[in-house]
Each structure stands twice: as structure tokens, then as C-alpha cells.
Amino acid sequence: MSREIKRSEPTDSEVILGILNGSKDVLERLYKAYFPMILQLVVMNNGTEDEAKDVFQESVIVLYDKVQSGNFELSSKLKTFIYSVCRRLWLKRLTYKSRNSGSIQDYEETLPVEEDIEQHEEKDRLFKQMETALVHLGEPCRTIIEDYYINNKSMQEICVKFGYTNADNAKNQKYKCLQRLKKIFFSDSK
Amino acid sequence: MELTEQIEAYLRGEMTAEESAAFERMRASDPVLDQRVVAHESFIRQIKTYGERRKLVSEMNAIHEQLDVNALKAEVLPVSTMVRILWNKYRINAAVAASVAVLAVFATLFSTGFFAKTSAIASDNIALRREMSREINTKVQRSQNEILKNIKANTKAPVDPAIFGGTGFALTADGYVVTNYHVVKDADSVYIQNTDGESYRAATIYSYPAYDIAVLKITDPAFKTLKPLPYTFKKTTSDLGEDVFTYGFPKDELVFSKGYLSSRTGHSGDTTEYQVDISVNPGNSGGPLLDGKGNIIGVIKGKSSRTEGASFAIKSGYLLEAIASIPKDSLGEKLVLNRKNTLSNLSRKDQIKKIEDYIYMVKVY
């Protein structure tokens, strides 16, 4: 017997717009609206709350990737999409843990999301590869790369932060760091 | 490096329109350059994707921190699942607590001597072989033995005193003797001694622990075949109230005692035994239990430590069963039991006199 979950949900178009704008508020509303549903799904099917958190966060990542890459068609409710992805992910984990031979107690309708999950897994692999490469890169290279390419800081700011005598030295350093990162990243992928 | 600078400037849109157009022309004419631009762009995107993803996860974690997951669980899960989750969480603690409790109970029982008491209850059946103390015997007994030896030079009595003693009685005139298995088990050697004090070496040729029966054979060359046995062995079960008597060696002299059959079952309802109201003591084990007419109806085995005057004897039927199961090759010749009773019309005194010669002290070393 499952309990019905009553909660105010953001409208789907609101969420998609929010994702595209990088709105924190929309992420929070999305999280709070749909996490309980996934908590119920996972915990009622041999999982723990931490596993529910992992699975749910992965599904949000899948949704973000899909929306940002522009190939998210609103053919179903967002809720159904998230539920389907989580369900699929949780089934995979259960099979991996061999606690369950592929049956799960359902609470919502589902969509076929195998393709999305395959794409997600590939991205996840690259993400982990980049993470490892950055760890191996070491400091100060790692921070320089992150500041420049991720946090969009200017060369001038980096120059001041790391105490380089001029921006050219900083550029030179960044160049060397990037070369090394590429080397580590691509040697890991082989 | 300059090239990378250019590529980045181009990708970031930091070039002027002119520079950008020139760069694009270069790119169109030089496939190697074009490839480097594409590769660089995709690698930078990879880094950016990594950054975005990390940011998203950290934002989600921050949101997750604000959630009261337990309240959510209580809201979305049925009560039974909540109980199951709590159980999974705390079962280790429960197991530890239970173990401590069990340990405490057993430690308390142990320290208060509970187990000592129960084992006393379990062993209320006292086997009646006699322990012959070495200390008492050392000097006196040894000198006695030496005196005996001096008087009867041909009696090969062992010099050391026996460690255990019991009673046995003749099965046949040619030297088969029956006693309890518990009398002769673990024996290094067994001697039997008649009422005249003559000792003969004997060998355990068969034991039947289930009925506590052992059959000995006198192997001593000094042993002479007896006169035909005066008693017979009763095959059927005797009746309650039957007057019975026994002889045995609870001390170094033959002791007669008399009683009656009080139950068809023995210790803890054992159907292979009788319960007999008769006074017996350590050393009586293996002695014969006879009825008024001089039939062997059982073998004295033990007594109860709880019930006053309750002794136990193996029923003769089971004695016969044990004898019948002796493998042929354990016996030199066929074991033929006596069928003629010469005691039935005699007075008790005369019965005792006739039986004496067939009752032995079994000495175990």
C-alpha cells in the first residue's frame, strides 16, 4: 500500500526555462517536488535513503543534459520522465547488487528511457575521466584551468591571484597546464 | 602556443570582425588547423561540462541538506516499511544487547552453581562399581596380599591393589562370567576372585555398552571347571512384588541383600531395567539378581541418588539378548547356558551356600 504524495509541482515549462537560465530557485522547487516520489520508489524496493538521493540526483543530471542539449521534447510530463529514469537506474543497481532479478514495485507510469540512460552513462564516464585527470594534474594547474575555463575568470585575475609578474607568464603557465591536462585525459581514455 | 591563443580568442569571440574573417579563411584552406580548432573546442566543452555538472551536484546537495528526509519518509512510506527500516538500522544493536543478555544469564547461572545442580540431577543414577582407594590399601592391603601369597604360593594375586571393583557371576561352568560393562571399561587387566580368595586372570571377550553388559572369560590356567551351575536364567519379565535377593562384593566379603521388585522400568523409565527396592552399594555392580526360586532375573547395575532404596537391574531378557549377539569367533566354543535349576526347593540359607562359589569379585586394574 503506497501513500499518495501530494505536493505542489512547478509547471514543466517553468522548469525547462529555469534549467536553460540556470535558475537555482527552479532547481530547488524541482528537487523538493520530485525527490519524495523517488525516495518512496527506492526505499520500498530494497534501497536506502542515500541510494535514493544518488539515483534522484543522477536523473536530474540526465534531465539537465537533455534540456541543455536541446533535444528534450515535452512528449510526456517531466515527472514521468524523472520517474522513468530513476526507475531504470535503480533496476540497474539492483541487478548489479543481484538482490533483485529485475522486478520492481511501481508507483507511477513510465517511459522507455534506455537511450537517455546510455547517453548519460557515456557522459558520466567522461565526467569521471575529467575528474581523475584534474586530480592528477595537481595544483596550481588545476585551479588555473578551473578558474579560466569553468569559472570564466580573466587572465588578469588569474595573474593577480597566483602572483605572476605579468599576464603573459600566466598565459604561458595556463598553456602548459592545458597541454598536460590533455595528455593525462587522453592517455586515461585509452 | 600562439596558435592556441588564436584559437581561444576566436572561440571566445574576442577577435575583431576582420581578424575573425581572416582566421576563418585560414581554417577553410587548412584542414589541419580546422581539425585543431574542432578538437580544442570539444575539449574545452568537456571541461565546461565537467564544471557545470559539479556545480549542479553541489547545488543539489545543498538543497538536499535542507530536506528533512525522515519526515519525508514518514510521509511517503507505509508504517510497516518504516518499522522494517528501523529494524535494519538497529538490528546490530539489538543483536549485541541480546548477546549480552544471554551471556549475563549464563554467567549468572554458572556462578550460582545452577549447572552443577542440573548435572547432579542428570547423574542421579549411580553406577555401583567400587573405587578402591590406593591410600588406604597401600600398606595394609599389600601386606595382606603378601601374606596370602605366602600361604598360598600358587595363587598369582597381583601385588598392587585393584583400582576398581565390582561383582560378577558365572554364566557357564567352564569360565564365562558376566558383569557390567561400566565395571571393566578402560581396564588394563581384569582379575576375578572367588569367595576363597583365589584370583584368576580374565579377559573381556565381549561388551554390550547399550545394556551395560560385559562377558569375561577366565583365561588363567589355574582355573578348574566348576560343577554345573545351580541357577537358570529367566527369559520372561518378572512380576512386581516378587521377592528378590542378590550377592555382591561391596566389601572384600560376600554380602547378601534382599528386597522386592518395585517397578518394571528402571532409571528414567528405562524398559531394559527393573527398579528393585534393595540395598546395594558400590561394588555390587554386576551382581546377580535372583528370584525366590533361584532364577537369575537381572544384573545389578546402579541405584538412584534421589529415591531412597531404588536400585536398578538389567532384565535377564536383555542379558540373554546381549549374550546371543556375541559373534561366534569371539567364543572358543559354543556358550551353553544351564537349564536345570537345583535351587528351587532349598531354603534361602542353603541357596546362598550353593551359589557362593559362582559369584566373583571383579578386580580391575
Number of E-type strands of chain B: 15
What distance separates the N and C termini of chain A?
A: 49 Å
Distance between the termini of chain B: 104 Å
Helix/strand/pairing category of chain A: mainly alpha
Oligomer: heterodimer
Helix content of chain B: 40-55%
How many individual β-strands of chain A?
A: 0
Structural class label of chain B: alpha+beta
What fraction strand of chain A? under 5%
GO molecular function (chain B): serine-type endopeptidase activity
Keywords (chain B): Membrane, Transmembrane, Transmembrane helix
InterPro entries (chain B): Peptidase_S1_PA, Peptidase_S1_PA_chymotrypsin, Peptidase_S1C
Pfam family, one (chain B): Trypsin_2
Task: Give an overview of the whole structure.
- The complex is a heterodimer of chains A (190) and B (365).
- Chain A is elongated.
- Chain A is built from 8 helices and no strands.
- In chain A, α6 crosses α8 (167-189).
- Chain A starts with 11 loop residues before the first helix and ends with a helix.
- Chain A is mostly helical.
- Chain A has 2 domains: 1-99, Rna Polymerase Sigma Factor, Chain: A; 138-189.
- Chain B is of the alpha+beta class and 365 residues long.
- Chain B folds into 2 domains: 3-63; 164-364, Thrombin, subunit H, CATH 2.40.10.
- In chain B, the strands form 2 sheets. Chain B has a 6-stranded antiparallel beta barrel with strand order 9-10-11-14-13-12.
- In chain B, β6 (199-208) and β7 form a beta hairpin.
- In chain B, α1 (2-11) crosses α3.
- The model of chain B is unreliable at 135-157 (pLDDT under 50).
- The chains are: A mainly alpha (190), B alpha+beta (365).
- Chain B: GO terms for molecular function: serine-type endopeptidase activity.
- Chain B: InterPro entries: Peptidase_S1_PA, Peptidase_S1_PA_chymotrypsin, Peptidase_S1C.
- Chain B: Keywords: Membrane, Transmembrane, Transmembrane helix.
- Chain B: This is Trypsin-like peptidase domain-containing protein.
- Chain B: The chain crosses the membrane at residues 92-116.
